[in-house]
Write a structure and sequence with these properties.
Length: 161
């Protein structure tokens, strides 16, 4: 009987290193299936991502960018800088001189639906935006204005808390 017990023990016990009673072929197949499922998951997640273009007509804007560079150079040559001030309930943009043809965009890189645009053909020295119209986060203020017969442009990054 002693032999019988040791024989039964050998049949029921697993060899060392054999995980869950699987041989190496089964483990390779499980690893491959796991990898394939992981890759399928990544593909599904990639297709669910939302990609916003900075602008729908980015190609035309890129071709005309030299004009934008000239406008920035005009501002640097005259030492014109846009001042952005934040208070508890508003954001104020101050222009260096009385300006007409003002176009301002609060550009939100993470979500185009949060962008704010404002234009003014009147002569202005400042524009005021309510903080309640702006969500918390990073904005790029893009301002274009006319003064002294020239067009000026400047961009400033701000963070709304």
């Amino acid at each position: 009987m002693g032999n019988m017990n040791s024989k039964q023990e050998k049949e029921t016990s697993r060899p060392e290193g054999n995980l869950f009673g699987l041989n190496w072929g089964h483990r390779i197949a499980l690893a491959y299936i796991g990898f394939v499922l992981f890759m399928i998951g990544l593909v599904v997640m990639a297709f669910q991502q939302k990609f916003d273009l900075v602008a729908d007509d980015y190609y035309a804007q890129e071709i005309a960018y030299q004009g934008r560079i000239d406008q920035m150079d005009n501002a640097k040559a005259k030492n014109y800088t846009l001042t952005v001030e934040q208070s508890s309930d508003e954001v104020t943009l101050r222009f260096p001189t009385a300006s007409t043809g003002v176009r301002v965009q609060f550009f939100r890189p993470s979500d185009e639906t949060m962008d704010i645009h404002r234009t003014s053909e009147e002569s202005v020295m400042e524009l005021i935006f309510l903080r309640s119209d702006l969500s918390s986060g990073k904005y790029l203020v893009k301002a274009e204005w006319q003064a002294d017969g020239k067009v000026y442009y400047e961009e400033k990054a701000i963070v709304i808390n």
